[in-house]
Design goal:
By secondary structure, this protein is mainly α. The protein has helices at 2-18, 22-25, 31-44, 46-49, 72-81, 94-104, 117-125, 145-158, 160-163, 205-211, 217-227, 238-251, 265-268; strands spanning 136-137, 271-272. The protein folds into 2 domains: 2-125, Cytochrome c-like domain (Cytochrome Bc1 Complex, Chain D, domain 2, Orthogonal Bundle), CATH 1.10.760.10; 137-281, Cytochrome Bc1 Complex, Chain D, domain 2 (Orthogonal Bundle), CATH 1.10.760. Strands 1-2 form a two-stranded parallel ribbon. Helix 8 (145-158) packs across helix 12 and helix 11 (217-227) crosses helix 12 (238-251). The termini are far apart.
């Protein structure tokens, strides 16, 4: 009976948020708020939803003119917990969610108004409306050595055309013909312009980890599945994608553990990419 009452109260709360007066949500829609929201969108969402808001349907729907943006609880839940192919962003604060949701509700010609901070605060603090996610870092041994070994030949077949097939030790002026057959198949760890691959971003090392700072591994995984390899996106199996990520993590000197990186968006949503280990992870 208690569970039924909680669900009933939660449903009333969510419906009431869906019909907040436009005059209320339009208050304090400042340029500073929109600029903060735009910055958060570009850092966390543009990889999949595109800077234009047009998305990559059907996995990542367009946000332009999307009527679902009128439903504040729905978009808050999707950001906090993820939904379908969309990864979660549990690391975002209430203020950041307010800025982000206010931006996407008013960018690209959308006119849904500002999201009241209290609405987000109530949602986040109500345990009956969202699952509490335990977050861990990529520095906590989230893949195994065997998985990284499996990812190496898949990387070699699928990624080297753009990202290179040189060991980290070789500089941009070294000739590739001297590369031994058993050399580590990776290039551009710290120099994106090395060896003529200026258009391919680094896939490991400090540059890579800083570029994906505070993103979940699910975000990286979903981006790889939808966009890579460039000539045939989505052509690998889900397992091969996570094995490649495990291989990339090994090249970034992230410690291996005793459990493999799973090909599961919900579980990958709980792992945050950090440029360096925090004291609690040492």
């Amino acid at each position: 009976m208690c569970k039924l009452i909680c669900r009933f109260i939660a449903s009333i709360f969510m419906v009431s948020l869906s019909f907040i007066s436009p005059s209320l949500v339009a208050e304090d829609l400042s340029n500073d708020l929109l600029e903060k929201g735009k910055s958060l969108f570009e850092a966390n969402c543009a990889l999949c939803h595109q800077s234009s808001g047009e998305g990559v349907p059907p996995a990542f729907p367009a946000l332009v003119g999307n009527e679902n943006l009128a439903n504040i609880p729905l978009i808050t839940s999707n950001i906090r917990n993820g939904e379908g192919a969309m990864p979660a962003f549990p690391q975002l604060s209430v203020d950041e969610i307010v800025a982000l949701t206010s931006y996407i509700r008013n960018a690209w010609g959308n006119k849904f108004g500002k999201v009241p901070k209290q609405a987000i605060q109530d949602y986040v603090s109500d345990a009956t409306l969202g699952e509490i996610i335990a977050i861990r870092s990529v520095w906590e041994g989230v893949y195994t050595k065997d998985q990284a070994k499996r990812g190496r030949p898949v990387y070699s077949r699928s990624c080297t055309e753009c990202h290179g097939d040189e060991p980290v030790a070789f500089g941009p002026n070294e000739h590739r013909s001297v590369l031994p057959n058993d050399a580590i198949s990776f290039s551009l760890v710290s120099d994106p312009g090395a060896s003529g691959f200026s258009s391919a971003p680094p896939l490991a090392g400090g540059v890579f980890l800083r570029g994906w700072k505070n993103q979940t591994v699910a975000n990286l995984y979903q981006y790889a599945r939808s966009e890579m390899p460039q000539e045939s996106p989505g052509s690998l199996t889900d397992q091969q994608y996570v094995d490649i990520i495990a291989y990339i993590f090994s090249l970034s000197s992230l410690p291996a553990g005793d459990q493999e990186l799973p090909a599961d968006v919900k579980q990958l949503n709980t792992i945050i990419i950090e440029p360096e280990a925090s004291k609690s992870n040492l």
